[in-house]
Amino acid sequence: MITLEQVAKQYGATHALGPIDLEIARGGITALVGPNGAGKSTMLTIIGRLLDADSGTVRIGDFDVVTSRPRELAKVVSILKQENHFVARLTVRQLVGFGRFPHSRGRLMTWDDHEAVDRAIAFFDLAELEDRFLDELSGGQRQRAFVAMVLAQDTDYVLLDEPLASLDMRHAAAMMQRLRDAADALGRTIVLVVHDLNFAAAYADRIVALSAGRIVAAGTPDEIMRPDVLTEVFDTPVEVLEHRGRPLAVYYRP
Amino acid sequence: MVAGGLAVTFAVLLLTWANPLPVGEPGFWIIVRSRATAVGTIALVATCQALATVLFHTATRNRILTPSILGFDALYTLMQTALVFVFGMAATQVEGVGKIIVQSLAMIAFASVLYGWLFSGTRQNLHVLLLVGVVLGVGFGSVSTFLQRMLTPSEFDLLSARLFGSIGRGNPDVLPWAGLIVAVIGVLAWRQRRTLDVLALGRDTATNLGLRYRRQVVVLLVVVATLVSISTTMVGPMTFFGFLVATMTYQFVHVDDHGRTLPMAVLVAVATLLGASFVLQHIFYAAGLVMIIIEFVGGLAFLIVILKKGLR
Which residues of A touch B211 (CB under 8 A)? Predict the structure, then answer.
């Protein structure tokens, strides 16, 4: 379980997050949604210890994110930010192999490590690309390789900041399906920021809606995907239709 | 392999070429031994510059900057100038282990204080650090120029001779100690090569993979400072040699993890510096120009890389 207590962060004069209290249960996919500047990514990077909160505590399982040993924490939680730019030239296999670093700690990778890398590569259909350099891949392929790296890290908790950014429809749907499989088959707890509400509704178990640095609503897709809730969160008229038994938000033309 | 072979070849050539005595005579070995100091110094300085530049590139995630941008060369110039200014001609007569240790320690202390200050609290921006390095470098340079104006012409003459990098200035007493320190750093860097690879991925990814990023980068920068100090106190400032070597290394190794770049950079550096010394000393009879020509070539390479990156 991920627990946030009174987490707050001030950004300049206008943008602020929190104070936020939130519990994210173990297992399944939790989607963070909200308008631009609502603080979704800020909250995610604070949970993933890439950003220090001004106040409050974040606990993941039994670990306090700030005081725990980084080495141990890296075996419990992994985070992938949206922008990833590397100076070094790396192959896909090398990149995914870095996910094993918290386990191998600089020694040569063991047979188990290679197996974990193979599994992650197979899981994301990267076998044909594994010897290609990252700068030779398309945006979607590269995104898959990065997600494969954090999956090879074998952490219970996986935090992803907009994993669907720069993916087209087909790849976005495939990515969500793989994450769904990772949650179901491998028992990972996945927390992700998504911009497309309907992806959240179709694949997530829980949705947390933020607006202006506060949590406005949290619950199952059926509880959140309601016209009144969404209209308030996004401050724009949203209709909700039903499509094959799932809620579908429509907001393209009020 | 090729770089290693070249390094060994040039080392043997430098030791034995144009030896007035025939092979096997006792005198032959005396001359070889006296030349060994110069060869050892060249190899050591090349190793320092190669490791320092590659590690610096890893810490800053930038392949154009060189350690000298942090104001090291300028600090060395200032220290030498201040010595001559305060003690006059006598300062240039003092040589020995003590002086070199004091100089190295002063430069390491300067670097540690600077990085410690810049990386404490919320100031952890590397670009700020580099900007401070540039500004300090210019500041030190201006103070040096000011002091140089007030020297007598003969003092100034001695000083300028000292401020040009010269590999002939190797000191046989210091060489083993410096070699030991560099060897220890080299072994540690090699053992930590996987950690260095992760560090090169940047703050977010390295933190995600369980490194204390800020602390690791500070340690790395202090190591770079140590290497540059050793090199600078032994033969004087070198601005572009490390850049030249690192750029060649990245061209030679296609997959750049530190398991490959570190040894390759050392071999390339040693081969280049020994090769240049040999060619200039025995073919063009211009031994004193080695550093000037290497810096010229390195500076040209620097400009070309900057222009190419800028156009892209």
Answer: 70
